[in-house]
Design goal:
This protein is α/β, with parallel strands linked by helices and about 700 residues long. The protein is about 30% helix and about 25% strand. Among the domains are: about 5-235, Spore Coat Polysaccharide Biosynthesis Protein SpsA, Chain A; about 290-330 and about 525-630, Alpha-Beta Complex (Polyamine Oxidase, Chain A, domain 2); about 330-440, no CATH class. The chain has a seven-stranded mixed sheet, sandwiched between helices. Strands 14, 15, 22, 23, 24, 25 and 31 form a seven-stranded mixed sheet that branches. Strands 20-19-27-28-29-26-30 form a seven-stranded mixed sheet. Strand 14 (about 255-260), helix 8 (about 260-270) and strand 15 (about 275-280) form a beta-alpha-beta unit. The protein is elongated. The chain binds flavin-adenine dinucleotide.
């Protein structure tokens, strides 16, 4: 006989919003893995061989993650209600219509985790010869209102009533435990096809008819349908004995992926072989983490909009949001001499006073600056004296926190386009033109902030270990040993590793890195970043998406307005502004405490006339250590040496901090896919000498 379990996973998960705006409850991450993983692991351990998922709301995410279930040793099928949710009984009827139900089967909910013996439950059901069985727990109103009268002697549920209307309610001491068993026949007989209906009335009726068997559970259950429930479940997971530490060369997964930002998740989602992502934070996402607090939603490490020159990549990114998407149009300004000038500055000349307008236009056209050798000279050569001195030079020196003549210029080509002269003339005389058109329209998650994007990718990844602070990476005879700094005994062994963590961290944790390489990595300059987010109890902020502030006297270089990225980021009647400030360890600003940074930002906003102190109802200061890659003259050579060293070891580097390149989310995804494809080829044909080995799998090269 087939040992089957049906999982009802079609619900909307309203109590877990906004996370469930983008994924069904089954996919909610619990200790770094989708919840469904634990359910399936448990079912397989309980001797279940076949699982039917009744899916509906965002069900594809489950389908994509679980697939045919072979990863858990299960055979999995799907019954899809689409958008027309049929209720718990209606979903079973649809599964029956789809020919998926065994003669008898267990049913549990997509958000519950149980501590019960399924073989014992099944044995009791078969012995009872009744058409249905309900597991019950003595509750005495502790978890929720008791709703069952259970007669232990006869093993029967005498009354099941959720409504509380039965006069015998006072005698109820038990509660429905969340797993039942049914015969296919009882569903065929009592549940109408094509109509929405729930199991509760059917179970109520069977209890009144004396045809509902019972089975008493003794341990509490967990459900992840509410934030408290998820918290309890994660505590439970933590309390479980850990797998013994690995001191021998035990191979758990073929590939270890260091870091669970967008790049790491992308690699894991595209590898054909087993892999595991190790992430130090309490959740994946890295630079793309968002804050959802007091009704406000914003990106923790600075505003992140989705755009790409590559339409295919952009389409893929949007698809990861599964409909949770808002399309916006840029409305950026440059704040110059108390005016808001259209962005990019060269397309906004008409907003300047006539003298400034003339100087920008004249020097743009009459420009005999020689071929540039550094970034400063490049600005003069490309844009002329007016545009450079009024905006480009002060703004860039502010954001890069370094003199522009100390920066190389190989990174600007392609990133900062030279506008056609016609456009600059048109802009000066007041004809509308647009620059940086690949960013003119952008996408952003409607709810949940940019973190919804890595969440969408994480939903495709089976093994994510969060809270794993990698402190040691060591080459062994047959692979790699990776150790956890938070828990000295926790070690993993992999055949190959991909690193997406910052190069500066790698140089310290990989065993045996020579001093010369450490020096090269040290020479690679990066900027750190403060993001200061301020919520106002009014809607007085302008409807700009961002404001660039070149004035060196103002601490921040950019302001952005999360409410413009998605209307759901800000509660009605309120508004939100985020300031970004570049700083570096040792420069004095980085050493300021959060209160002082906040004070300076508020003063700057007041001076610009944007904020009244009395309107502020929320504030938060966040530090990001590895913000921007600074390309000075040492950059190319130092980077090449460091990358060659890690390539020689056989470590693939992928992502912004790991490759130490100024790349955006779209490129992190592209490079992640590329690394995964290379490793897939290598792993599929280990003996083929013509394929690049993992040591040649440096992304983007
Ligand atoms: C201010 C700012 C604004 C940006 N705006 C945009 C934008 O508008 N659009 C856009 O497309 N891109 C934008 N980006 C770029 C984008 O954030 C990055 O390209 C992308 O998020 C990088 O992903 P990643 O996986 O390479 O790195 P990360 O996100 O940094 O991931 C690395 C992961 O490794 C983990 N880690 C580090 N050390 C360890 C360790 N020892 N053990 C375990 N785990 C570790 C980290 O916690 C992190 O999760 C912006 C970046 C910044 C800084």
């Amino acid at each position: 006989m087939q040992n089957q379990c049906v999982i009802l996973a079609g619900g909307l998960g309203t109590r877990m919003r906004p996370v469930t705006q983008t994924m069904p409850k089954s996919m909610l991450p619990a200790a770094g893995k989708p919840f469904v993983h634990y359910q399936l692991e448990w079912l397989a351990a309980q001797g279940v061989s076949s699982v039917v998922f009744c899916i509906g709301y965002r069900g594809n995410a489950i389908r994509e993650f679980v697939g045919d279930g072979h990863a858990w040793g299960l055979s999995v099928a799907y019954s899809d209600e689409g958008n027309q949710l049929l209720g718990t009984a209606g979903a079973l009827r649809l599964a029956l219509e789809n020919g998926l139900l065994a003669e008898t089967f267990a049913v549990l909910y997509g958000d519950s985790f149980l501590n019960i013996s399924l073989p014992a439950l099944r044995a009791r059901f078969e012995e009872s010869a009744m058409p249905a069985l309900m597991a019950v727990l003595r509750n005495d109103n502790q978890w929720d209102h008791s709703n069952v009268i259970y007669e232990g002697d006869s093993g029967r549920v005498v009354l099941y009533d959720k409504t509380g209307r039965d006069p015998r309610s006072g005698w109820m001491h038990y509660i429905d435990y969340g797993v039942s068993m049914f015969t296919r026949a009882v569903i065929a007989r009592h549940v109408p096809a094509g109509e929405a209906s729930d199991l509760a009335p059917l179970l109520h009726r069977l209890s009144l008819e004396g045809r509902l068997a019972g089975f008493e559970a003794t341990e509490r259950f967990y459900e992840v349908g509410s934030p408290q429930g998820m918290h309890d479940f994660e505590q439970y997971l933590q309390s479980q004995p850990q797998a013994p530490a690995v001191h021998t060369a035990r191979r758990e997964h073929v590939t270890g992926i260091l870091g669970g930002g967008l790049a790491g998740l992308t690699v894991a989602a595209h590898l054909n072989t087993e892999s595991e992502v190790l992430e130090s934070s309490d959740r994946p996402g890295g630079h793309c983490q968002s804050v959802v607090e007091e009704g406000f939603t914003y990106d923790a490490g600075g505003p992140h909009i989705m755009f790409s020159r590559n339409q295919q990549t952009l389409d893929f990114m949007v698809s990861l949001l599964g409909g949770n998407v808002y399309k916006g149009r840029r409305n950026n300004k440059v704040y110059y001499k108390d005016r808001y000038v259209k962005y990019p500055f060269e397309n906004g000349l008409f907003d300047l006073d006539p003298q400034d307008r003339f100087e920008c236009l004249y020097h743009y056209i009459k420009n005999d600056h020689p071929t540039p050798k550094n970034f400063k000279e490049w600005m003069y050569h490309t844009f002329g004296t007016g545009l450079t001195e009024k905006y480009l030079l002060p703004y860039n020196e502010k954001i890069w926190n370094v003199a522009a003549d100390q920066m190389s210029l190989d990174w600007v080509e392609g990133r900062v386009p030279r506008p056609p002269v016609e456009d600059v003339i048109k802009a000066a005389v007041g004809v509308n033109t647009e620059g940086y058109t690949h960013q003119l329209h952008f996408f952003y998650p409607e709810r949940g902030g940019i973190e919804a994007l890595p969440q969408g990718m994480a939903a495709r990844v089976k093994n994510i270990q969060t809270g794993f602070e990698i402190s040691r990476v060591q080459k062994t005879n047959d692979g790699w040993l990776v150790g956890n700094g938070n828990n000295g005994n926790d070690e993993r062994h992999y055949e190959q590793i991909v690193s997406t963590i910052p190069l500066h961290e790698m140089a310290n944790i990989v065993e045996g890195v020579p001093q010369e390489i450490k020096q090269c990595v040290k020479a690679l300059r990066y900027n750190s970043l403060f993001t200061v987010t301020i919520g106002l109890a009014s809607e007085k902020l302008p409807d700009y998406s961002a404001i660039y502030v070149p004035d060196p006297k103002v601490p921040f270089h950019r302001l952005s307005f999360p409410g413009l990225f998605s209307p759901h980021n800000v509660p009605q009647g309120q508004s939100l502004v985020q300031a970004e400030i570049t700083a570096n360890e040792g420069d004095g600003f980085w050493e300021l405490d959060a209160a002082e940074v906040l004070r300076r930002v508020i003063s700057g906003l007041e001076d610009m006339g944007l904020v009244k102190r009395s309107d502020i109802c929320y504030s938060k200061v966040i530090r990001t250590k590895y913000g921007y890659v600074v390309q000075d003259f040492a950059y190319r050579q130092s980077l090449e040496k460091a990358k060659n060293y890690f390539a020689g070891l056989g470590i693939s580097l992928c992502g912004r901090g790991a490759e130490f390149e100024y790349i955006n989310m779209d490129q992190c995804i592209e490079r992640g896919i590329k690394v995964a494809n290379t490793l897939n080829q290598v792993n599929a044909n280990p003996a083929n000498p013509n394929l690049p080995g993992p040591e040649l799998a440096l992304a983007g090269h």
